[in-house]
Amino acid sequence: MRLPRMITVTLAGLAVLLPVTACSSDEPAGGAAPQASESATPTEEPTPENLHPFTGQPADKMKPVLAVKIENTAAGKPQMGLKSADIVYVTQVEAGLTRLIAVFSSKIPAKIGPVRSARITDLHVAPMFGEPAFAYSGAQTKMLPFIAEASLHDVSDSRVPGAYYREPGRYAPYNLFARPKKLLAAARQASKAGDIGFTFGDPPAEGGVDRTSYTVKWPAARFTFRWSEDEKQWLIWQDGKKDVAAEGGQLGASTVVIQYTKTERSEFHDSNQSYTPLVKTVGKGSAIVLRDGKAYKARWERESEEGGTTFTTQSGEPMNFAPGQVWVALASRKPVTP
Q1: What are the tens digits of pLDDT across the range 72-116?
Q2: Which residue blocks in the chain are alpha helix, DSSP H?
Q3: Which secondary-structure segment (H or E) carries 69?
Q4: What does the pLDDT look like over 14-37, one tens digit per residue?
Q5: Which DSSP category does 306 fall into?
Q6: Residue burial 297-317, b: 16+ Cβ < 10 Å; e: rest
Q7: Where is the DUF3048 domain positioned along the sequence (predicted)?
């Protein structure tokens, strides 16, 4: 399976970035072929090897990966730093609410937050990125041994306290923010960005339907993604309100993936005996991919925790994403509170 996927990435990149110039059989008067300008210099287009595997955008080199657990309720908004993320995962937590896993590599913001506590689902998503640096604020005591054995570099507030600070004007626990450069400096062995199964390029020729908005629901949270033709992005609303960044402007993504997964009760629960959901990201299932103002039915597959997640069309062709930031909503067609 790995070999075909790598070939797919290469072909998809060439399809977008190396378009062939259309030829014409018409010639100027006199039959002379047009002469190339002596001052014109050829320009090099990025090759697939120069594209970032998380965004499909040009990248000079692959940098270490940082994953950060971010608060996602009204009390923690507006969030800071998300605009710089390559990928943002929306995951269900206790009581049917959601939190985010923001993945950074190509761009590193100055600050990010609010940083919140880890969940068991995070430890199953992380191995897809090798051994990334993972920033979070605390975890249940009985989950600490799982974190210690997980495929990640722990840069939590207890391990790297100097990388965290309390943001003025906010109240605890929603005021803990981090400085990503300091986090990465404490995890110099963190894996660099690599293939995680995503492909970027032209959209499928068939299968897409025009869509101006798409809503995804969890038991106690609701996201709506609305296409903006002016911004060429899916702008984000949460619980009926614009999702605005602390830096200004509304959050949005070039591609949104609604990855339908199985969610079950884990062995962990909070002080109110509300069980922590475990989102199953290894296996296969259905998905909806939003790009360029269209919605595409797709399939996803992840063979192992160390492997990436591939997305294909219903006919089995690669489901290319639009270059840019990707949001992945880990959802369920019939969401329940474990």
Answers
A1: 999 999 999 999 999 999 999 999 999 999 999 999 999 999 999
A2: 2-17, 120-125, 144-149, 180-185
A3: strand 66-70
A4: 333 333 333 333 333 333 333 443
A5: T
A6: ebbbbbeeeebbbbbbbeeee
A7: 55-190, 216-328
* Element of type H or E holding 308: none
Contact criterion met (CB below 8 Å) for 115 and 136: yes
Q: For 259-287, give one letter per residue: b (16+ CB within 10 A) or e.
A: bbbebeebebeeeeeebbbbbbbbeebeb
Q: How many CA atoms lie within 13 A of 239 on its CB side?
A: 12
Least Cα distance to 139 among 160, 154, 153, 161 occurs for 154
What residues pair up with 275 in beta bridges, in sequence order?
269
Q: Give 49: exposed, middle or buried? Use CB within 10 Å, 0-12, 13-18, 19+.
A: exposed
129: CB partners within 8 A, 6+ apart: 65, 67, 103, 191, 193, 194, 196
The phi-psi region of residue 182 (left if phi > 0; otherwise alpha if psi is between -120 and 50; otherwise beta) is alpha
Q: Which of 190, 194, 193, 169 is nearest to 181 (CA)?
A: 190
Interacting residues of 158 by C-beta distance below 8 A, sequence separation 6+: 138
Instruction: Say how far apart CA 194 and CA 132 lie, in whole Å.
Output: 11
Strand pairing of 164-166 and 98-104? unpaired
Cα–Cα distance measured from residue 149 to residue 315, given in angstroms and rounded to the nearest whole number: 39
The C-alpha atoms of residue 16 and residue 29 are separated, in whole angstroms, by 34
Q: How far apart, in whole angstroms, are the C-alpha atoms of residue 246 and residue 324?
A: 20
Residue 167 burial class via C-beta count within 10 angstroms: exposed 0-12, middle 13-18, buried 19 and up: middle
Hey, is 115 helix, strand or coil?
Answer: strand
